[in-house]
Amino acid sequence: MVFSPAVQGRKGLNNKEFGFLRQKIQKTQKQMASLLGTSLKAVQSFEQGWRKVPVHIERQLLFLLSTKQVIPGKSRPCWVIRNCPSENREACPAFEFNMGGLCWFINGTICQGKVQGSWAKKMKVCQNCEVFGQTMKTRDLGPGGWVHIRRGRKSEKEKNG
Predict the structure, then answer these.
(1) What angle do CA 132, 150, 22 make, to 5 degrees?
(2) Rounded distance, CA 87 to CA 160, Å?
(3) What is the model's pLDDT at position 100?
(4) Per-residue pLDDT band at 142 (split at 50, 70, 90)
(5) What is the pLDDT of residues 2-24, one digit of tens each?
(6) Which of 43, 84, 124, 147 has a 20 to 30 A CA-CA distance from 59?
(7) What pTM, to 2 d.p., does this model score?
(8) Contacts 24+ apart (CB under 8 A), 125-132
(9) What residues contact residue 62 under an 8 Å CB cut-off, 6+ apart?
(10) In the 8-state DSSP scheme, what is residue 54?
(11) Looking at per-residue confidence, does 130 or 51 come out higher?
């Protein structure tokens, strides 16, 4: 799973994924536009494939989806799941703000021993992480959750032969 044109090989949400996720959070196009702080025409354009889904819209959509999936008391913080050393925990924004289930949403987190920078670079790491996978795993998205949706996508190279 890859997320932004800014990083080689990374694609943002495509129109089908955007529409699918909008339906999964059970919002009309008009409601989605309001939630995302954008116009109805923009949402329609994202779904038709006329406009690329900007990173800030992708982030917001994933955040909204994740909040519908949280089961109180069921999730463990990322620093426990990833067994982070205390020096990394103390310096990590996810730990500082007690956001262990939403570490993927916060820029500047320390994962795999280093600060994860931009959203695009960070999501290349997060896409294979158990924490992100558990957050995006839902019965509405099917058995593989978010990863299941993204695996069906073909790269431009595959499409063009």
Answers:
(1) 80
(2) 47
(3) 86
(4) very low
(5) 333 333 344 677 888 899 889 88
(6) 84
(7) 0.61
(8) 127/1, 127/2, 127/3, 128/1, 129/78, 129/82, 129/104, 130/81, 130/82, 131/78, 131/81, 131/82, 131/100, 131/101, 131/103, 131/104, 132/104
(9) 21, 104, 105, 136
(10) P
(11) 51
The C-alpha atoms of residue 53 and residue 51 are separated, in whole angstroms, by: 6
CATH superfamily of 11-69: lambda repressor-like DNA-binding domains (1.10.260.40)
State the DSSP string of 99-127.
-TTSGGGSTT-EETTEE--SHHHHHHHHT
Q: Tokens at residue 18, please?
A: 């955007």
What is the Cα–Cα distance from 105 to 78, expressed in whole angstroms?
Answer: 12
Structural domain spans, the chain: 11-69, 72-151
Dig out the tokens for 34 from the structure.
């309001």
pLDDT digits (tens, 9 = 90+) for 61-113: 888 887 776 555 567 889 998 999 999 999 998 898 888 888 888 888 888 88
Sign of CA dihedral 85, 79, 106, 131: positive
